Amino acid sequence: MTGRFAPTPSGRMHIGNATAMLAAWLSARAEHRRILLRIEDIDQPRVVPDADRWIMDDLNWLGLDWDDEPIYQSQRLDLYHEALDALRGRVIDLPNPGNTSNTSNTSACGTVIGTATGTSTRASGNAHPTLSGLVECAHGFPNPAVASTSATIASIPAAESAPATPLIYPCFCSRSDIRAASAPQEGDGFVVYPGTCRRLITADPATARTRLANGDRHSWRIAMPTADDPRADVRFHDRVFGPQRFCLPRDVGDSVICRSDGIFSYQLAVVVDDVLNGVDDVVRGRDLLRSTALQIWIRRELAAAGFFATDADCATDAADCAMVSTGAIGQRGATQHGAEPRGAHQDAPRSPLNPAYAHLPLIDNANGRRLAKRERALDLGTLRASGVRPEQIVGYCAWLLGLQRDALGRRTDAPRPMSAAEALRAFDRLSWLAIRDERSGAKMGDTEAQDCANPATQQRPQPADRLLPADIVAALPRYDVPDDAARRGLV
Q1: Contact yes or no for 228/93 (Cβ under 8 A)
Q2: Is 342 within 8 Å of 366 (Cβ atoms)?
Q3: Dihedral angle over CA of 139, 88, 82, 288, nearest 10
Q4: This prediction's pTM
Q5: Start-to-end Cα distance in the chain
Q6: 199: Cβ–Cβ under 8 A, 6 or more apart, which residues?
Q7: Whether residue 142 has a cis bond before it, omega within 30° of 0
Q8: CA–CA gap between residue 235 and residue 344 (Å, rounded)
Q9: What is the rounded distance in angstroms from the CA atom of residue 38 to the CA atom of residue 23?
Q10: Residue 407, CB half-sphere, CA atoms under 13 Å: how many?
Q11: 304-353, pLDDT tens digit by residue?
Q12: Which residues pair with 285 in a beta bridge?
């Protein structure tokens, strides 16, 4: 199937980006698979002019090729609109005890959902009678967060209507509101949304009607199931960090999928793109482990709404869609590179609806801070301008990934230059076991200890997975130029 590079064009790539790109390329090419380049430029205010060209130039320079033409998220807004519309009108509440499926409904506009580029019939059915006023249709590009107030306000349910929780609901909270209402979080500082507007929508729809009528600024959130709902427990296997288990309401919380400025969230866009592009191999940084649980939930709900099954370009099949009803999405089994222990869902097939995951340890600079594009001294443009060769960068990244070993199988004390092809041969031999060796063994989640319904398990262990290189430029392997190459002016 397919892997992908997915850089954000917000600046020049640094060593951490290059390491992630190398790992994604190795994962795909080791299995003779395709790899796509997707430019994640959906957040236009963060986009730096020409950064996409710099990224492609750096990848070519490193010897990391890709298949097909680059994909730009900014050219796929109609798909994200359709995905959001497919989720609107669905409810989070289980229809009856023991039923883990959800009835698919359309938006308040009816069975045919309109977009700026035409109409979509991805979702079908009848809108929930208590929700139609809060699941407004967003026909106009580029701002789906702006309400179509005439249709929206008129159909908001009365307070005496039967309560129901929409899967997608408007959120009027500011960041300061959320911080003030949230309990302090341990570890990575992630704040779980306290559910303020979720309670407002179900308990006081009249106030929601008034606020929408007044044009109050709002984002759109996707609701998580409650802790006693079997769907709240999300498990997946990571090829680096091992078995993962997240309780959606406790560890993730209701999450923004469309911002108040109309920009679709990374979480929604990446799910739509990965499935429709046939991506079944996801390699990225450890900081996105929690996001994986959220994306599994979004993927399940989009599949249950029929969003993927009716798309002619979707790389899924009937077997993929059958996983929705069995709860197998996200419950991966063994892979060729780095098999997991046997257990539940061992035989779940790898597919765009059920991809393989590998999350990489993060890389800190010499001061112990995570690498960032704003630190220009570490970006590839600066390194290239200083005379650094691509083999030095690839060798250093491969060394960080544990792919450079001595005769006894131990990681070498210092990196050495190597080409992308040499790194691929090392990965073929060592696979993900090498990268797992480079971390302490602490996992984000313990598959036995984590339990949505048990408050005693609410403290999550934090991974000791930071790679702490010394000064990166000084640590780069020396690249000795042959005398004949120097004389010919090749360097």
Answers
A1: no
A2: no
A3: 120
A4: 0.77
A5: 38
A6: none
A7: yes
A8: 10
A9: 16
A10: 0
A11: 999 997 443 444 444 444 444 334 444 433 333 333 333 333 446 889 99
A12: 360
